[in-house]
């Protein structure tokens, strides 16, 4: 599929990314090897991760080396994410991803060393093309720890469309390694 122009609307980019992602081999083990070395080198212990949707890199094996947390999507009073211990994710959300049940105790973002963010695509400036809900954009604007976009290398592009509220990550993790994003 042809790469959309950088100013194409986000739905066009999402369609492109889904098609490209569908053709990617699962190289999650290699990606996690790079991530583990990177996180250890930076002293990370508590890491906010995600349960992978089909086609996304799976970071679940990192639970053997770090204290992983995951999120639950909430919609009242406004859409937001809450953080919970990894092993509590026992139900499937409306988005099709594993999440903790509503009553599980929460963990504060201020206790997290690093956040691993899934995305349909990222650009070299750290702009994330998400699924359109804005959940991470609302969760992380004041987060001062490590932010790492996790994506297949084929889905890292020169430039994505962005808006002022769009989160930018500091690093990108792919099956080929970890790289800092451009300022």
- Low-confidence blocks of residues: none
Please give the domain count: 1
Kindly provide the name of the CATH class.
Alpha Beta
Structural class, by secondary structure, is alpha/beta
- Strands ordered across the widest β-sheet: 3-2-1-6-9-11-12
**Name given to the CATH homologous superfamily:** NagB/RpiA/CoA transferase-like
How large is the share of residues in beta strands?
Answer: 25-35%
Question: Which CATH architecture?
Answer: 3-Layer(aba) Sandwich
Helix proportion range: 10-25%
Major sheet:
7 strands, mixed
The beta-strand count equals 12
Give, in order, the helices and strands: HHEEEEEEEEHEEEE
Number of helices: 3
Which word captures the global form?
globular
Q: Might you state the CATH topology name?
A: Rossmann fold
